[in-house]
Design a protein that fits this description.
The complex is a heterodimer of chains A (776) and B (254).
Chain A lengths: L1 H8 L1 H27 L13 E4 L2 E3 L6 E3 L4 H12 L4 E7 L4 E5 L2 E2 L9 E3 L10 E4 L7 E5 L9 E6 L2 E11 L4 E3 L1 H7 L5 E6 L5 H11 L4 E4 L9 H39 L1 H9 L4 H40 L13 H27 L19 H23 L2 H35 L8 H12 L1 H39 L4 E5 L7 H4 L5 E7 L2 E8 L5 E3 H7 L6 E5 L5 E5 L2 E3 L8 E4 H7 L8 E2 L12 E5 H44 L2 H9 L4 H42 L9 H31 L1
Parallel strand pairs in A: 7-12, 9-11, 17-22, 18-21
Antiparallel strand pairs in A: 1-13, 1-14, 2-3, 4-13, 5-6, 5-10, 8-11, 9-12, 10-11, 15-23, 15-24, 16-17, 18-22, 19-20
Helix pairs in contact in A: 1-8, 2-6, 2-8, 2-9, 2-17, 6-9, 6-17, 8-9, 10-11, 10-19, 11-12, 11-13, 11-19, 12-13, 12-19, 13-17, 13-19, 13-20, 17-20, 19-20
Chain B lengths: L9 E12 L6 E12 L3 E5 L6 H8 L7 E6 L2 E2 L5 H11 E4 L11 H11 L6 H10 L15 H14 L4 E5 L7 H18 L3 E4 L3 H4 L4 E6 L2 E6 L8 H14 L1
Parallel strand pairs in B: 3-8, 3-9, 6-7, 7-8
Antiparallel strand pairs in B: 1-2, 1-4, 4-5, 9-10
Helix pairs in contact in B: 3-4, 3-5, 4-5, 5-6
The chains are: A alpha+beta (776), B alpha/beta (254).
Amino acid sequence: MIALAAVRGRAASLAGTFAGLTLGVALIAMALLVHVSAQPRTPQRLAAAPVLVHGPVAPDAAGVGSGVRPWTGSDAAALAGRLAGLPGVAAAVPDRSFYAQLVIGGEPVGDAEDAGAGHGWSSAALGAYPLVEGVAPAAAGQVAADVATGLAVGARTTLLTAGGPAEVIVTGLVGGPGVYVSDAEAARLSPGVPVIGLLLRDGADPAGAAAAARDVATGAVVATGEQRAALEPVQQAKTRWLGTQLLIAMASLAVFVTVFVVASTFALNVAQRRRELGLLRTVGATPRQIRRFVLGEAMLVGAAGGVAGALLGTAAAGPAGGLLVRWGLAEPGLEVRPQLLPVLAAVAVGVGVALVGAYAAGRRAAKVPPMDALREASVEARAMGPGRWLLGGGALLLGGFLAIRTAAAAADERVNSALFAAMALTAAAALLAPVLVPPLVRLVSWPLRGARGAGPMLVRAESLTAARRTAATAAPVIATVGFAVLLSGMVSTMREAYPAGQAAKLAGITVAVPDGTPGLTEAAAGGRAVLPTRVYANGLSIAAFGTATAPVSVAADVADALGVRVGDTLSVVFADGNAERLTIAKLTPDGQVDDDLILPRELVRRHDPSALAGAVIGVDAAAPAGLPGVEVLDAKAYADRESSEDTRLLWLFATVLIALSVGYTGIAVVNTMAMSAESRRPDLAVLRRAGATPRQTLRYAAAEALLVVALGTGLGLAVTIPPLLGMAGGLAEEVGVPVALRLHWPVLVATVLATAAVAVAATLTATRRASAHRSG
Amino acid sequence: MTITPSPAAEAVGLTGARKVYGTGAQAVTALDELTLAFPQGTFTAVMGPSGSGKSTLLQCAAGLDRLTSGAVRVGGVDLGGLNEQRRTVLRRERIGFVFQSFNLVASLTAAQNVELPLRLAGRRPAAAAVRAALAEVGLADRATHRPAELSGGQQQRVAIARALITRPDVVFADEPTGALDTAASREVLGLLRAAVDGHGQTVVMVTHDPVAASYADEVVFLRDGRIADRLGGAAQVPGRAEQIAGLMARLEQR
């Protein structure tokens, strides 16, 4: 009853907590809904085959994605023959995917990332793609093109395959995506077969056919229904992985910041309600009961915010999915459907977060002595208790240590290390603010000390005497400015560093790169470039790279996963389904190269006719120029191009996270500003009686809010500079050129201005309401 | 029905009560070896100049604060041997409070404020009992009003209803009329008097107002943490307030 009444009675002061929780739960619900909806789906082009038979799915040795072990062409043909004879099966179609891209008007068309758009003609039946016009390709030099390309039957055009460009004639048009060649040509381009699709007779039961297929295809996976999603292309798995990273970052930020908002508002709440809590203690509430009231209040607000957030998150999930698709972090065709379980989970997290945030405040409330009800004036408690000193000092030491460690951290840990350092330093600044505030206030107001008006005197005195309140109000500003400066500064610094380092390494060299294609053909690469492929060994899928000279070498962590050492022999299955026995000649230490397994180039080409090279470095600029799908760049342009996709993603992540954290801490700023203005109601009345005009009181309040924003900005900058410096130092070490610390000034200035505007608006509104209340 | 307690039974008693604030040179003795008993069914006023220790006496007697040495008994239970949890429970069951101001939880209605001690004790308050308690202080029609909608006197009457609903051994009142006008003061004091006369309650009231003190059966004057004087006899006799004021004036001059 008391918690409920307390929530009802102080709806206004809990509005900030409610808003923060609503936003948090909405974000979590949205992230979960999008994540659940973005689960692997059966590729559209295989969806018409109710039963798919494929080789074992091998997890990637490096941990991202998986691959299907292929059969050799002859094994697949034999197996397909046996499967076709099963009752209810109309046809068993070996399905091949390989690189094939049409060139129209000199430009490669279609998805520039798709290295598997080519298929044999019989695969069109697996997606029920109809032949719209013309006839199926039956010989080399013939293709069936997607009707959407706008090509006409009989048109002559260029087809890019891994060998290079070739003239082809369009014999037919297909009502679906992809480039289709004759089955014989497909078997040449991709000897191996990863999957056999079963087409069933009318009325045949997929489960029955699958059961029969399992008896025939021993050692293979027979998938029906949702299980067929395991065959999604690797590219889609990568896209989803990226999208998941953003969703995870958003959800964790939501949890972190919600705890922050709830904790700070509840702390202020308890501080302002000391007298009421003391009264409850005198009339017989035990400390435990007081703690339960505060937690009960948090639970009620959490539940209310949870329900509102669940509705908001469900409504926002659809558009959010659309955004992810547009940003290239989710596959087109993603359909976000409302589901109960993820939303309930989000609500539960919201309530839990509210309880965690209110826990410390509840403990403090339980310690309020009963006699506080008898005291007339609320006296500001000691600025700093020993616990606060201890926590603040500890956070400061930890943050400093992490900032120094950032400089020495490995490349992939650097960003996280800087983030943690900044978090620790932000916490330290917020905790130590009560001792930092007075000297800073004196410093900031130094030029005004001789001023004649009452304003500077009042503002100075208020901020100095109520150091703890000033500190509490400045805390969200520290976090807002800190987050924005850190995230934008990290991206700016990295954007400078990586291209500079690459350009320095490749100075004076030209590079041939793919242009509108997923890789370079043999004609363009000319046998020089590194050839990536995928192999299977010991139940794992491994990214392998064919180089001209290298001995067989394995990255140390992959060697551990495979359980092999130098000198061991490893049986490796290639893309064509054939196995080779290789002797490991060398282990490469972790982190030195990205390549998991290095093989002779000639071996890779022999087993994977459709492998595409990434880039040719140091190539004579004239050699491949003029070929479709090739661009020749100098070192600087190449370095920029290489990092542009990374930079785009980094900016995307940074922008989303900055927007979230700033919007979020903005709520906390509004809340603490409004609450602190509310608590000054008696002071205002005294001021008014002493002859201050309403306009003057508003001006003082605004000036004080601006002073707090200035303090918070200073501290926010102070906590982000050490991690950024550490990061710049680490980057300089890695890329080999000096890296300067870069702040993103537009983001910084915009954040500070927005925070100041929000703080002043909140203060003025609350102050005006407080004075109106008094006179009314 | 009138309960007539035996005059010997004490509701609250202090023996050798000593309370020292601070340490060393800054130590201030607020209660100095004070021994005092408040008999059941009586109305006692505690008076004294500022710093005489009257507020400290009330807080220690009510178990809100601990004595430096000596003993406090409420309803025969020694508070010294109880931890915070047990003292809170004892306070809830045996002691009622009325303060000068800020007596009520702002977000609760008058009726909910009255129910508060029962609910804190985990008991379900009977609606009729709450109604009766409010009716007794003349606020039956204000049950659903919040404190902000009540006058200062009405708020004090709600506080009295709340202090009495548990039928406590003793009600401590700290300047209950300090913030009220004369008419409202008279109502509040009348209610306290009625609680003693009508229900056999025990009331201990700290005040500096001789008129308020004239409602009490006995007035105890404190000075420097010790009993300086006592004035017993019947309450509300004509001229009693003037007599108390005279004693106070002499006490403050010394």
